[in-house]
């Protein structure tokens, strides 16, 4: 159930104000200046500066978000649960603290924000889109959510996901479908479709999403926002306990799952990364995460690899043209550009990724379901392409160890590539946001690339290059189609070079066209 506020008097006032604003906007402005962006639609770092300087209270900024939610969210279904009472109480505490001490609570002091409904939130139901979890109210925060609150964030809502995060578009029986903020017939992507749509539409300036098989970066690409898949080695740099799936109360998560920030600017990605990059609580007494700073300040100083297309996963004409423009911009900036070298074999990397993905996904299967899969796998030949899923799901521990050894060798191959290159730029997806297909059973879904029908899950092949080896990978908006849909590129960096890929995104943002603005942001 989505908690809604019934403020008839306030609604009348807002409607009247909107009418007055519309009338005023139709007249020439005496100053000739463009209209000022409402604070809640500004980047998070600007909101935080206003909060610290006392230009606005957290309570007042929260109210701006709630009003915007009422106006925009019904057409998007990005935010699925509100916690207005607790959020107002948290905002009031932030305001009292600042008034009494003159100091902020932390890096996110008083900032209203939403979080993905896959992350457990204390006292606020967390469903992960699953009917079985419709009434699940956690007793504690996910570790990452606890970091946000400790930094002073005001969590006021949860954003939509597919059931148990198991789709690359966002819909579930509890809340329905999240629409793309640029075109209602297009998918917002998944599984972090709600977070990406919320940020794109101004319902939250920043968000935290999760990424196992492109779940963070694909929605960001489709919704025209920035997102960072953070580094992951033996352990992640952002703690993942409290993420569903796995089921509530599990202490472990997938060995490829990462959490990361979503934002409308690369500066805000960095802001949230500074808060989230931390050891798990059990390791905090001895461990620290000190991500190295970017060593270069100009785009022309970088050695940039470009992987613009590949026979294994062809991209469409718009995306090819986009990569061509980005390559020209990087070269004109003086960077050393290499369009020929490839870090890995695309097909081999993707097959290993799929095997490891299916293997880790089996952990939370019921005993009966897993036994049935084992029996089914025994009837499918090991070399049968259709048996990849079953054989990966039911592999013996020795087979997993062999696959993990292949993963470590793949990491070494990437490391050798990054000894000669600072970053690699690739497509984020084969196309812009595809048509929403939530009404079509998964086996019947497909995408179309330059008129050619292609498998549905080809959407994630490019973002999955970084997945098995835990590299930081950032998606950034870089243009639009003729129809106005966002187009994006991906920047992959060496292990633990999260700040470097953000730095490259900042530098690219200076030479790329301004990111597209969803209708909800156009004031």
Short description:
The chain is an alpha+beta fold and 523 residues long.
Q: Give a quick account of the main beta sheet: strands, pairing sense, barrel closure.
A: 8 strands, mixed
Ranges where pLDDT stays below 50 over 5 or more residues in a row are 1-31
Q: Could you report the average pLDDT, rounded to the nearest whole number?
A: 93
Shape: globular
Number of strands: 17
Distinct helical segment count: 14
Strand content: 5-15%
What is the SS-derived class? alpha+beta
User: Main sheet: which strands, in order across?
Assistant: 8-10-9-16-17-13-11-12
> What is the alpha-carbon Rg in Å?
23 Å
* Residue share in helix: 25-40%
Measured between the Cα atoms of the first and last residue, the distance is: 30 Å
